[in-house]
Amino acid sequence: MARKTAREYGPPTVTVKGRDVRLRTIGFVLLAGAAIWFIAANTKSVTIRLWIPTVTLPLWSVLTVTLLVGVALGLLVAHRRARR
């Protein structure tokens, strides 16, 4: 009788080169790659108004800061939910 190699319950996985990889990890890698590509493709300068001052920055730097703030907020929310 053959043994079951996959867990009966747990996160969905895909076998890649003999290793089980979670679908969540694959999704994260794809989204991170798309975000990096999008940031690298947008290099023109933009003018941004921050309440009072107006600054001119390359768009890639604005997108990078926005991405990092989004990641930080996501981690904060996930950490708070895990504590409950």
Automatic annotation (TrEMBL):
Task: Tell me the keywords, alphabetical order.
Answer: Cell membrane, Membrane, Transmembrane, Transmembrane helix
Q: Which domain of life is it from?
A: Bacteria
InterPro entries attached to this UniProt entry: LapA_dom
The coiled-coil regions, if any, are none
Pfam families given in the database record: LapA_dom
Q: Which GO terms describe its cellular component?
A: plasma membrane
Q: Which organism is it from?
A: Streptomyces pilosus
All residue ranges annotated as the Lipopolysaccharide assembly protein A domain in the record:
42-78
Give the transmembrane region(s).
21-39, 59-78
Q: What is this protein called?
A: Lipopolysaccharide assembly protein A domain-containing protein
UniProt keyword Oxidoreductase present:
no
